[in-house]
Design a protein that fits this description.
elongated, mainly alpha, 4 helices
Length: about 100
């Protein structure tokens, strides 16, 4: 028998999950609805750019937990969807005729 105590292992941290990427997707939903419901011009374009900027900041902020804990399986699909929607909105804002 040994007199030394073993230090307990810290619990493993979960990987970054689908909830990590859901907030940017929720922020990028109104621009899609605006594009479907109205012709974006003037104030609508400003609103679309604001939503896109907030979505981009949120995606960038979510990289910290993803980098620390990793992204696996279905969560990776949600991550890819969030990035694809962000790029899709940027392409629509920059290159689609107004």
């Amino acid at each position: 028998m040994s007199d030394t105590r073993s230090t307990p292992r810290p619990a493993p941290r979960p990987a970054a999950g689908r909830a990590t990427w859901s907030l940017p997707l929720l922020v990028l939903t109104p621009p899609a609805v605006i594009r479907l419901a109205a012709e974006p011009s003037g104030g609508w374009l400003v609103a679309l750019w604001v939503f896109w900027a907030v979505g981009a900041v949120l995606v960038a902020a979510e990289w910290r937990p993803a980098a620390r804990h990793g992204v696996r399986g279905r969560d990776l699909i949600t991550c890819l969807i969030a990035h694809a929607v962000l790029v899709w909105h940027l392409v629509l804002l920059l290159f689609v005729q107004r």
